[in-house]
Amino acid sequence: MSEPLEHIIAKRDSFPLIWDLLAPRDEFRDLYPLCLRRWNAMTYRAQQRLYWYLREKKRKGEKIYDNPLYALTYTKPYPFNWRGVASIDAQFKREKMVSAFYNGSFGIYPKNVADYFEMSHITPLN
Fold it and tell me: Is 9 left (phi over 0), alpha (psi -120 to 50) or beta?
């Protein structure tokens, strides 16, 4: 299955964003060409999922791989289900939220995350 041209263009233009997000130390800077090839081999949706997931981990102060090639290769993104979380009311004020089916069950997710993870049965909640 081939990707639409706009996805191919968007994903090739997005590598500087993931490189900046990963912010590799000098000892890993020579991995740029390998990382670029790895990034370009991903589908656009896979790139969106990985970028979102790594950005969220950094925002929360969680550890990600120091080696950018490891981050692109071994990180397995998954969505965060807000159902039952105490701070869900604040989340509803920040983002469009949906009920969606993912990995065998329904949950509450930001709309963009439901799109990135290609969830089904998406129902707007706000």
Answer: alpha
